[in-house]
Structures are given as C-alpha cells and as structure tokens.
Amino acid sequence: MKDTKKYEIKDSVIRKKSRALETNLYRSAENQKYLMEINEQKDYSRLIYGICFFVLVFAEVMIALFVNDEWIRPYVGDVLVVIAIYTFVRIFIPHRCVALPMIILFFACLVEALQYINIVDKIGLGDVKFFRVLIGTVGDPKDIICYAVGCILLIIYEMIRVRIDKNR
To answer: Distance between CA atoms of 156 and 142, rounded to whole angstroms?
Structure first.
C-alpha cells in the first residue's frame, strides 16, 4: 500500500511539472514580440546614456580647462560629475536599479572623505598630477551638498521615468 501512494504522489508531481513547463513554453511563445520590444528599448536606453555620458565628460573637461570662476567650476562641476557617473553606470544597467542615485551619493561621499584625509599622499601618489586631479586633495563639505543636489535631480528623473514606464 505504501508503494502505490509513493507512485501516485510521484505521478502527480510529474504532471504538475509538465503543466508548468507547457505553460512557460506557451507564455514565452506568446510574449516573444514583447520581449523583443523590451530588449530594443534597453539597447536604445544604453545608446542614449552613452551619448549623455560622453557629453557630460566633455562638459566637465571644458569646465576644468577653461572656466575659472567661483560658481560653475566648483558647484556646477560637482553636480555634473554625479550625473556623469549615473549615466556611465546606466550604460551597463539601463533598468531595475532605482536606488542607483543613493548608491552614487554614498560613493561620492566616500571619495570626499578620502580627500579629507588626503589619501593621495598617504598611498604615495601625491607626485602624480593625474591622481591628484582624479581623486582630489581637498575635502570640502560644500562638495557633498553639490553631490546631494545632483542626486536629488537624479531621484526626480528616476521617479518620472518609473511613472512613464508604468503608463506604457
């Protein structure tokens, strides 16, 4: 008697699994066009983010080389650098990371804290101008405020993008 129950249970499990496989095959065939549209949207998003990244990096370089004022270079440049990092990451992860602006803000604050303790000199790269410019040498609380403003703009963008995606 135990053997028959074992076979009945095993048989019902096999039937359930085969029904699930049939359903998945049916769904995938039915949604193939939809999946292709999503992949095309991701490719288009990656292209747009890539273009935005290169434009922002170009703007940052132009600001660093040619602007010597007390407003655009120190403040607008810091806001733009956060947005540039966001667009760079979005090239590889175009969707499904709504918390990305907060992650970037954490990263920017970490870099600012490393600047505050003068990490470039401590790791022995103080003589290399490239690393002094890339990492920075002076920690400033105003920079963190600028990074936060950039991240707030990105959060607003994310909220708008999520609403548009839900309405589609």
So the answer is: 21
